[in-house]
């Protein structure tokens, strides 16, 4: 148990994940539980276009309005031609200097005509044909400019809209992101419970609700929670069928009371400091969760020894355990995180979804994956 640290086990080379035939777990199948969070996460993604759309006009306004405001003829012509009531449309109209002249000229002419004919009701009614023609031309020109500029403004708005859609958003979750909140990390009955030297089991005398015997070769009759037990049996069978290897269980569920015995023995034989490097104090052992098993070769080679990592069985487990929902919990290069020496035989069942996620992301400890503090000591 106090063997020197060894180099990290090479990552797994399995190209395709095969889900083992795991029976319905008491804790609930990960698939059904995960299905809801995934669907919920999809909602914000659909909302992205809706959220960005209100910003489109805002972003577009400066661009569309800027050139118009730069035109000097604005103030002068505005009172002359009240027809374009819309602010956006009025400004572009005034941007055309050539059009501003005929209108005041026509008005002035009308006023002169009106002045020559006392009693005329309005200047409008007394306009000469030339003035009316000029005014019609001016009006038509104004309308044409309004239409053209309106098209420009609308085009700018649409362009700005496209630009806004192309921008990445920070609020939305990428589709299919792994839901790290699917299960509790604190509840000892949770498949994701994280137990280490800083996270004792609560309550300290917790007993798993669905312990069953694991029907595999063993040196000590193994009990595990139902889902983990089935996964072990499936994995052991696969080791045989795929690689011709025979595995055995060396230790699985250990009650609080049995952990007291194991730990006391360790302390008696090699002292407390050394015992703490290899054996959990009662109440902080993963074995008490009913989700952890120490696995060896049925031949007994390197049993519970670090040299097991170099055996065919150790290699196979290191590369394939994740496919069956297991994690090599105490890797060689994570002693400062887990608080335990490299244990190539100690596997923790975490379910196939989380195990596959850890495998694909290359994160090798639960502490790191869930952003929990390292637990090198008590
Ligand atoms: Zn163990």
Automatic annotation (TrEMBL):
InterPro entries given in the database record: DD-CPase-like (IPR052179), VanY-like_core_dom (IPR003709), VanY/YodJ_core_dom (IPR058193), Zn_M74/Hedgehog-like (IPR009045)
Pfam families xref list: VanY (PF02557)
Biased composition annotated in UniProt, kind: Polar residues: 270-290
Annotated D-alanyl-D-alanine carboxypeptidase-like core domain residues: 223-351
Transmembrane spans: 136-158
CDD domains noted in UniProt: LD-carboxypeptidase
Keyword Transmembrane helix: yes
Location of the region described as Disordered in the Swiss-Prot/TrEMBL record: 1-30, 45-73, 267-290
Keyword annotations from UniProtKB, A to Z: Membrane, Transmembrane, Transmembrane helix
Gene3D superfamilies reported for this sequence: 3.30.1380.10
Coiled-coil boundaries: none
Name of the protein in question: D-alanyl-D-alanine carboxypeptidase-like core domain-containing protein
Native organism taxonomy: Bacteria, Bacillati, Actinomycetota, Actinomycetes, Micrococcales
């Amino acid at each position: 148990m106090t063997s020197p640290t060894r180099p990290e086990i090479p990552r797994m080379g399995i190209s395709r994940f095969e889900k083992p035939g795991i029976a319905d777990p008491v804790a609930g199948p990960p698939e059904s539980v995960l299905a809801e969070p995934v669907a919920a996460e999809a909602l914000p993604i659909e909302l992205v276009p809706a959220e960005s759309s209100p910003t489109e006009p805002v972003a577009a306004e400066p661009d569309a309005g800027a050139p118009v405001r730069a035109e000097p003829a604005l103030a002068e012509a505005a009172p002359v031609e009240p027809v374009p009531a819309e602010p956006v449309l009025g400004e572009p109209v005034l941007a055309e200097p050539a059009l501003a002249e005929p209108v005041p000229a026509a008005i002035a002419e009308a006023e002169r005509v009106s002045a020559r004919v006392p009693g005329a009701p309005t200047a409008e009614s007394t306009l000469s044909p030339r003035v009316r023609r000029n005014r019609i031309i001016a009006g038509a020109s104004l309308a044409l400019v309004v239409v053209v500029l309106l098209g420009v403004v609308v085009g700018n708005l649409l362009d700005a809209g496209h630009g806004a859609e192309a921008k990445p958003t920070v609020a939305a979750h990428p589709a299919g992101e792994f839901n790290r909140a699917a299960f509790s990390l604190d509840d000892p009955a949770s498949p994701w419970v994280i137990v280490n030297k800083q996270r004792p089991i609560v309550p300290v005398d917790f007993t798993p609700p669905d312990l069953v015997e694991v029907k595999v070769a063993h040196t000590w009759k193994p009990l595990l929670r139902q889902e983990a037990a089935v996964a072990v049996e499936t994995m052991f069978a696969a080791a045989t069928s795929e690689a011709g290897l025979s595995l055995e269980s060396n230790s699985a569920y250990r009650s609080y009371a049995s952990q007291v015995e194991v730990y006391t023995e360790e302390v008696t034989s090699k002292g407390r400091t050394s015992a703490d490097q290899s054996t959990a104090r009662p109440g902080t052992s993963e074995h008490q969760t009913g989700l952890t098993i120490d696995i060896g070769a049925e031949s007994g080679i390197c049993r519970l020894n670090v040299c097991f990592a170099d055996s065919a069985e150790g290699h196979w487990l290191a590369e394939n355990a994740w496919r069956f929902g297991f994690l090599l919990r105490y890797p060689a290069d994570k002693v400062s995180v887990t608080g335990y020496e490299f244990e190539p035989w100690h596997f923790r069942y975490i379910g196939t979804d989380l195990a596959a996620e850890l495998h694909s992301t290359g994160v090798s400890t639960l502490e790191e994956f869930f952003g929990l503090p390292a637990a090198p000591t008590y």
